[in-house]
Amino acid sequence: MKLQFYAMTLFLGVVLTVHLAMNGMVGAAIGNPRVANALFWCIGAVTAVVVGITGWKPGALSGLGQVNPLLLTAGVAGALLVFAIAKTVPEVGAGPFFVLLLAGQVLSAMVISHFGWFGSPVQTISPMHAVGAVVMVVGVYLTTK
To answer: Are 8 and 73 in contact (CB under 8 A)?
Structure first.
């Protein structure tokens, strides 16, 4: 059963919310969200290297030649995303920000899954999914008013 993965995903949503809100607070406290984000990314890079080293095996990068170089821009996208979040959260508030962020994630994930992009298993958008998306968009409207 996938229950443990659903629970982990829910927990990761909490971690993401707290992490990004903390990043926004640091940016607001020092008056520079760009510097705060750069600091977070440096600390994150050190952490990623430590975690990577613990699982490093000979040939760990041997498949890198098979990776479309465009996919490696995800790191750039991630950094720019967190820069934007560090600026936006203090401006709109954590509640409205994360409701809108979640809506963007759910809607884009539905499209990605529908077409099977990025190796995602295909999950066709059903009428029930569409209704759920509409209910979510209405919920976003209600929670940001």
So the answer is: no
User: Helices 74-92 and 94-115, interaxial angle, to 10°?
Assistant: 150
Q: Is the pLDDT confidence value at 128 over 70?
A: yes
DSSP state at residue 71: G
pTM of the entire predicted model: 0.66
Alpha-carbon distance 133 to 54, whole Å? Answer: 40
How many angstroms separate the CA atoms of 39 and 82, rounded?
11
The kind and range of the H/E element at 10 are: helix 3-30
Q: What angle do CA 27, 29, 35 make, to 5 degrees?
A: 35
Q: Could you tell me which residue, 123 or 77, shows the higher pLDDT?
A: 123
* 6-28: pLDDT as tens digits: 677 777 777 787 777 787 788 88
CB count in 10 Å sphere of residue 112: 15
Say how far apart CA 80 and CA 103 lie, in whole Å: 19
